[in-house]
Amino acid sequence: MSGFTVAIVGRPNVGKSTLFNRLLEQRKAIVDDVSGVTRDRQYGIADWNGKSFNVIDTGGFVPRSEEIFEREIRKQVQTAMEESNLLLFICDVATGITDLDQEMAHVLRRSSKPVYLVINKVDNSNRMLEATEFYSLGFDKVFFISSMSGSGTGELLDEVAAIIPEDEQALPGDDEVPKFAIIGQPNVGKSSLLNALIGAERNIVSDIPGTTRDTIHTHYKLFQKEFILIDTAGIRRKAKVHEDLEFYSVIRAIKAMDEADVCLLLLDATQGITGQDLNIFSMAGRKGKGLVVLVNKWDLIDDKGTNTARDYEKELRSRLAPFSNVPIIFTSVTEKQRIFRAIEEGLRVYENRKRRIATSKLNEVMLKAIEAFHPPVVRGIAIKIKYVTQLPTHTPAFAFFCNLPDDVKQPYKNYLENKLRENFDFEGVPVRLFFRKK
Ligand code: GDP
Ligand code: GDP
């Protein structure tokens, strides 16, 4: 995964979230004309022509009220220009060019990042004619689309995918130092954790700038363990201008995630897990990152009985499902409880993510499991899985060779994944299963 980020900008109601959903091919977000409607997803991962990239709907971060909007949108566009690799500037053919479009175009024309002007709601040929007025905004790349029907979005995606660099697929060598990212909502204790670790030992080797100027990699040698913590400028010293911008913290978290091997996701024990946390969690999973969940501020939970942690953990795991095979640790950063344990778990997950299973062992175990419980028969034909092998990828992936690869259904895939996890330690690691024609 390249870590390439595309930001969708534009004034309200031009169709940003409709386009966002189309790019992600999912309809979860609420699209609505009512102002002030909060949408449940503002960022995600899109795949096109073999390239994966982050997509951010900046509109999802702005309250849809006209007064605060103008000020917010200026900040939002500014941040999007700084933080993303490509901007999609959406305009609406139905309204024509508005003052706000002009104003945004003025800012965006000076962007050092590429900007594609996307004219939306071009639902028919009449609108196509009207849309030509947008050339006057002065952008080189102009696209005419209908997010509603999807027309034109394929061409747009082709152009987006074309400028994304190829993923580097080199496998990490054994001498690589594990990279951790601390992620989580504001105020869960990320910077406190970082400071506690910095304070824990003077033996910090160095601060190395990350691959983007926004991240800092700090090399630690704590109690004979070596690791690199990736933190973002936002964690270390809260950048004043952007403090109030949720969008900013999300985009930074995604960047840190892209550079990490394992993400330490912090939750506030008193708040429980939020929808935003689950988004970040599943995004990390889709990016193939290792995960450890830290339930922080555990000291604030009163009257802890013998079962408190166990019950809390059970409930949390059910929310994390289907990827619930992750370490969950109850920490208190302020009381220095289990902080080092968290790092140890991170290192363990890092090792799990590198785990390679010998083909002979894999087949011995998995063919037995398949023998014990066969895939259901389809159209009167038995599905026969003959052979399993682990693929040479960053994150564990397995290919199952069989006669009818397209007919293996999700429940059976879950069964196979569970069997893999029962027999080999992949805790905290997303595991991918592929089915191929024998
Ligand atoms: P946002 O505020 O920019 O995120 O805009 P939304 O995605 O919420 O869309 C605003 C309105 O425009 C909604 O009623 C959408 O259904 C509508 N809309 C979005 N795309 C299209 C399109 O391609 N054609 C038409 N006719 N309507 C669209
Ligand atoms: P960040 O925004 O995620 O970086 O969160 P901070 O590290 O700035 O912490 C937010 C607040 O929570 C601060 O007042 C911390 O002192 C407090 N805090 C952090 N960790 C703990 C903890 O384990 N227990 C308690 N009681 N407070 C904590």
UniProtKB/TrEMBL annotation:
Residues 4-168, 178-354 form the EngA-type G domain. It comes from the Bacteria. InterPro entries: AAA+_ATPase (IPR003593), G_ENGA (IPR031166), GTP-bd (IPR006073), GTPase_Der (IPR016484), KH_dom-like (IPR032859), KH_dom-like_a/b (IPR015946), P-loop_NTPase (IPR027417), Small_GTP-bd (IPR005225). SMART domains: AAA. GTP 2 binds at residues 184-191, 231-235, 296-299. SUPFAM superfamilies: P-loop containing nucleoside triphosphate hydrolases (SSF52540). Keywords: GTP-binding, Nucleotide-binding, Repeat, Ribosome biogenesis. CDD domains: EngA1 (cd01894), EngA2 (cd01895). GO terms for biological process: ribosome biogenesis. GO terms for molecular function: GTP binding; ribosome binding. The keyword Manganese does not apply. GTP 1 binds at residues 10-17, 57-61, 120-123. The keyword Transmembrane helix does not apply. Associates with the 50S ribosomal subunit. PANTHER family: GTPASE DER. GTPase that plays an essential role in the late steps of ribosome biogenesis. Belongs to the TRAFAC class TrmE-Era-EngA-EngB-Septin-like GTPase superfamily. EngA (Der) GTPase family. NCBIfam families: GTPase_EngA (TIGR03594), small_GTP (TIGR00231). This is GTPase Der. It comes from Chitinophaga oryziterrae.
